[in-house]
Amino acid sequence: MMSASLLVVILIHIYTVTAKLPEPQNVNVQGVNTRYILKWDWEWDQQPANKSIRFTVEYIPSYKYEMKGKKEWRMVCEKIPGTQCDFSEKVNYFGMFHLRLRAKSGRETSPWVIIEFCAEKDANLGPPSKVNVISKKGMLEVSIADPMASENKSMRELQKIYFMVVYWKNTSGAKNVSLIEDKNVAILMGLEPWTVYCVQVQSRSDYYEKKSLFSPMVCTQTTDDGHTPLWLIILIFFLTLALSFGGTLLCSFIVFQTYRVIKYTFFPFYQLPDNIQECLNEFTPMAQYAVLLSKDKEMELCCEKVNIVSEVTHEHSPISETALETDPVNHYRQNSGDSGVYSSEDGSGGVVGTGAPPETAGEE
């Protein structure tokens, strides 16, 4: 009986020595996509003076935890001073695990706190990693980037997700409009032109009914509805017509001026003198070619006969036409074929030239 009482006292003493520290409170896992952090609260006012508190976190797969016998816990965080432990790289997304946590200060320890965790079920789904809104012809094109897991992978590789797009006019009292989209691009139609709309997107998964937080708000102004007004069509038509007519006139003017320059430069309206043209023609390529063809013949110098006529003033004698007609003898003598010279005065001692025989005169 004494031995049993002594054993109870010893056990109580051991328990009071080893379990003197309180256990951590509010132990939970905050997991988003594939990042998992174990967090807890600690009553710092209960911490003994001049004693430092350290925390230890261990894990084990759930199927091993259910097995009888000694359990092989694996260390995650050992003797850390903070109140959180990141074990993202230790567990698999589709696995089931048990985690345990305790506080320790010197030889004093707290009881273990054990929780169960499954990432696929308990981890939250994150919002889209990026949302971009572009205005196109009165519509808004929303580009949505998938939530990202570790190692820069999309969460679509781990579970099926879709998006809920919520948008509204950026005015007071405007109602929200939601749209479900399973692709990464959503088109918002039926919007008012030249109006500012704000957009937020939420990620969702139906397997465990997960809903993420909404992405940051993005606001963009719409443009026109894509239909050109009639007045703008008419204005564009007349502007095009005016530009076409003006361009045609300008081209015609340029062609005309170019034609005039070429014509007056190479085909002038005046003609050079013939003698200058002949001299120029002698030096033309065709003339030189003709000379080369006739180089085996004798070259002749061709000259033209030039008649020089001078103006002569004829002095007429005062003999009238009647006198010529009434003096046939003198006219006959003047035009006779005799070559002698006669004197008009008898016995004047003039020179008598050789002429016709005297008989002709007597016969007369």
TrEMBL record:
Residues 317-364 are annotated as: Disordered. Keywords: Membrane, Signal, Transmembrane, Transmembrane helix. InterPro entries: FN3_dom, FN3_sf, Ig-like_fold, Interferon/interleukin_rcp_dom, Type-II_Cytokine-TF_Rcpt. Residues 332-346 have a biased composition (Polar residues). Pfam families: Interfer-bind, Tissue_fac. This is CRFB5a. Residues 1-19 form the signal peptide. Residues 124-225 form the Fibronectin type-III domain. The chain crosses the membrane at residues 230-256. GO terms for cellular component: plasma membrane. GO terms for molecular function: cytokine receptor activity. It comes from the Eukaryota. SUPFAM superfamilies: Fibronectin type III.
